Amino acid sequence: MAAEPARLVVLISGRGSNLQAIQAAIEAGRLPARIAAVVSDRPQAAGLNHAARHGLDTVMIEPARFPDRSAFERALMTAIDGFDPRFIVLAGFMRVLGRELVQHYLGRMLNIHPSLLPRHRGLHTHRRVLDAGEHEHGASVHFVTPDLDAGPVISQARVAVRPGDTADALAERLLPLEHLLYPATLALLLKHRVELHHDSTHLDDTPLRQPLLLDRDLGRDGGLLDAGHGR
Ligand code: GRF
Fold it and tell me: Phi and psi at residue 19, in whole multiples of 5°?
């Protein structure tokens, strides 16, 4: 009997284009997983419509309905754990999560951040890249640890900054790369080749010295390309 695909729980707050890309990769057979549930903290999150169209279970956990952050996060954990996911995938989830929750999922919770971490943690990354006069921008997939956007990076995709770029233009050019990077990275994680060990990303049980770069080290289907892949 074929093994059951790994369960993912995807957390969103908005548009949900990364959610859609992950779902599309699953449907195309590039990601041996199943989205067990989409959890949102915002009822107006557009990604919920996508989830509904695809018949995915959705769960709404609105912070305003809880007396404090810790009650909200307990409810979030209970909801997530109810689906027994292998990985918890933050995809535009616009909330800083507390230490207890993050520790509970350490090594199993991932995020995609629109910058070449460790540069530009936090918000408004596209604007900040332009303001700093940088020539290169990108996105990073990383393990979530208690410090915001500071968890060990697994993979990155890069995009060149062009003369006259605006923050919107940069964001628009980066997004399709995010949509390739996240499913490819998840595919690699599902193969057990990448793991979090002692605060660093390990590839095949060896610490990763630099993030895997999409299309140089990491293939779009989550295979490793043979250029030394960051080790
Ligand atoms: C993406 O740019 C992602 O890097 C960041 O939030 C945005 C989410 O977009 N974390 P979407 O909701 O997946 O379309």
Answer: -55, -45
Two tokens at 227?
Answer: 């250029």
The residue contributing the CA closest to ligand 1 atom 5 is 92
Q: What is the pTM of this model?
A: 0.96
Q: Does domain 6-213 have CATH number 3.40.50.300?
A: no
Choosing from 50, 54, 104, 113, the catalytic residue is 113
For the question of residue 54 being annotated catalytic, the response is: no
Q: Is 138 in the pocket of ligand 1 (CB under 6 A)?
A: no
Question: pLDDT at residue 1 above 80?
Answer: no
